[in-house]
Amino acid sequence: MKPMKISEAVVRRLPVYLQVLNDLTMRDVQTVSSQELGSKLDLNPAQIRKDLAYFGDFGRKGIGYDVGYLIEKIRQILKLDQPLNVALVGAGNLGRALCNYNTYLKDNMKITAVFDVHPSMVGASINGLTVLPMDKLKETIAERNIRIGIITVPAPEAQNVADKFVEAGVDGILNFAPTILRVQERVRIHYANFTTELMSLAYYLDEEGDKENDETIVD
């Protein structure tokens, strides 16, 4: 029997659930219902229950979810219950910002190595990480058991970096460069493209503006 295929939309909602649950823990909330979660996230409670049910029976009828237990289970599902080392290539402004964000991460996923091709960058220190040359990438990934790579280089250099990540054995890549990458099927790629997100946001702003203009037109 083949394992159930979970949709990408469901997987992308899990970290959002985890974020809210962690906030509830900080406020000493011990149980939460799907209705309460739905209200906080502006989601249908039935959708939340359905998402979580793909992975197990975590709630109790009439009581809801034990917040601590659900956090533990979602962390296991997302593989955050174990150290997950990340490498970053591109020590420019964005790369530095992401490395500095390490300080605020509470989970086991951390950037543990940063690389750059430019000699002026190599040797610099970013939040306790020393920028390494690209010729150290493969051995460092093996030594530190790095499974995810982040690309923050200009678009023309991104495919070459992706190829080096794949050759080094990473399983997933988060690409910030505004370009489509081609890699082996075994490697999962996610894109974080500021330009396309802003463009799509602009579409909705224009739509709202048109509505407002329509309502204020006087014959």
TrEMBL record:
This is Redox-sensing transcriptional repressor Rex. InterPro entries: CoA-bd, NAD(P)-bd_dom_sf, Rex_actinobacterial-type, Rex_DNA-bd_C_dom, Tscrpt_rep_Rex, WH-like_DNA-bd_sf, WH_DNA-bd_sf. Homodimer. One of its GO terms (molecular function) is DNA binding. Residues 16-55 bind DNA. Its main location: cytoplasm. It comes from Paenibacillus albus. One of its GO terms (cellular component) is cytoplasm. SUPFAM superfamilies: NAD(P)-binding Rossmann-fold domains, Winged helix' DNA-binding domain. Belongs to the transcriptional regulatory Rex family. It is found in: Cytoplasm. One of its GO terms (biological process) is negative regulation of DNA-templated transcription. Modulates transcription in response to changes in cellular NADH/NAD(+) redox state. Keywords: Cytoplasm, DNA-binding, NAD, Repressor, Transcription, Transcription regulation. It comes from the Bacteria. Transmembrane segments: none annotated. NAD(+) binds at residues 90-95. Residues 80-180 form the CoA-binding domain.
